[in-house]
Amino acid sequence: MLKNQLNENKLNSEQNNILTLDKLSIIICAILIFVMGKFQLADLIGIKRPIQIILIIPIFAYTISRIPNSRFSTISNPLFLLSILLVIFNIIYNRELIALSQYIITALAIFTILTVSNRNILIGVKWIVSLTAFFSILAISQLFLCLIFPDLINKVQSTDFQLIKLFGLMTNDVYTILGMKIGRIHSFLAEPSLVVVHFLFPAVLALFLNNKYWAYCASAILLFCFLTLSASFYLCLIFIAFYWLSVSFINHKYILFYAPIILFALVIFNLEKFDDLLTISSNIGTDSEFLNKTSSLNIRGKSIIIAFQEARQSYFGSSFKVISPLPILINIMLSAGYIGIICFMLFLYQLNNKINIILLKFKNRFTFQQIGTAFFFGVLSIVFVFNDYGALYYAGLTLFAFIYRLVSI
Q1: 222 with 203: CB under 8 angstroms?
Q2: Per residue in 135-170, pLDDT tens?
Q3: Distance from C-alpha of 135 to C-alpha of 218, rounded to nearest angstrom
């Protein structure tokens, strides 16, 4: 019996070391999160387009090989249907080759994530978390180097290539906190606020792995998010506190799905009070320079008002050009019409049910998955209420798919 067990373990080890097409494809799906969209490492090196073309080949080959044998549950998955709708409506309204290619790659990646084995999903998730933690530690190291050697801030912020930029990028802002000059780190993201999707979603994945090692990775990611001085991250913490307070009185299965929708409705119904929010932001900013978001709120708030007026009439999508980031539901209405909203809400409902099964399973003891659920609620609330931060593009949609598969295991 012992000999059979040893042989089985050896066979499993050999299988883990074999790089099959499905394993390669899921690893590439993970890597593309840090190549596509607004993660600018490949742009900095100057290899973004070539590497995208090379990486997409295995995913395309895998999709072609699996489509004939794919299950109806995969084809009918609401998230996959949404990705197809985004491709179709982009062809109808925008006809922009770059955007269209991004949506096609996203649809192929989601199909891959939905069809590979559970073992390969775990491999993909661990790649995402490991890479995100690695970039987080690089950016944190950069910040401390700049604290020790303040002159490095100018090198990071310069337009010329500097070796210190391989740790990450900084905005042109420099804040004085406790007498120290601090630059705003944001790894290789286009702006600090993008940590909501590109870093907090991987932190959620790390916590859902429910393991101490991956929880340490999540801690590194969250520390980086805190040090970006992103108001979106701090607002996310407020929503997380709201979640923990609410679960004491209301069943979590109702909070996770319905609360973000209610919060979005409250924002839409109170758009006329937008000027009051600007006044509050201005008052806060008098004491904390980096918390003064009046200009940002003014631009984004007015964009929400204009876009919502167009979106509510866009039953089948719209050619409306988005000039500023928007809440995800408005973006979906503009990009995929009301049928896109239905697909996305069905997906969230299914995801909500799967997370609830996990929480009920460990109801009587504390787990990292409970913390992960709280952070997932915080991210959902942000993208519903204020800004989708790329949640409707490759990084966001594929991370949604990874979370869906991970909680289904």
Answers
A1: yes
A2: 999 999 999 988 888 888 888 888 777 778 889 988
A3: 12
Residue 390 near residue 194 (C-beta atoms within 8 A): yes
pLDDT surpasses 90 at 171? no
Q: What is the DSSP letter of 321?
A: P
- Cα atoms found within 13 Å of the Cα of residue 281, Cβ hemisphere only: 17
Closest CA to 159 of 170, 147, 148: 170
Integer Cα distance of 146 and 356 in angstroms? 44
pLDDT tens digit sequence for 342-398: 999 999 999 999 998 888 877 767 889 999 999 999 999 999 988 888 899 999 999
- Angle formed at CA 34 by CA 30 and CA 36, multiple of 5 degrees: 100
3-state helix, strand, coil in the chain (%, to 5): 75, 5, 20
| Token pair for 342 | 């239905």
User: How many angstroms separate the CA atoms of 60 and 371, rounded?
Assistant: 36
DSSP, collapsed to helix, strand or coil, labels residue 370 as: helix
Q: Residue 179 has what pLDDT? A: 72
Q: Which amino acid is at 396?
A: G
Among 273-277, 278-282, 322-326, the range scoring the smallest mean pLDDT is 278-282
Nearest to 405 by CA among 66, 85, 109, 101: 109
What is the C-alpha separation between 246 and 243, in angstroms, rounded? 5
In this prediction, residues 8-32 reach a mean pLDDT of: 78
DSSP string, 230-296: -HHHHHHHHHHHHHHHHTTTS-HHHHHHHHHHHHHHHHHHTGGGHHHHHHHHHHHHTT-GGG--HHH
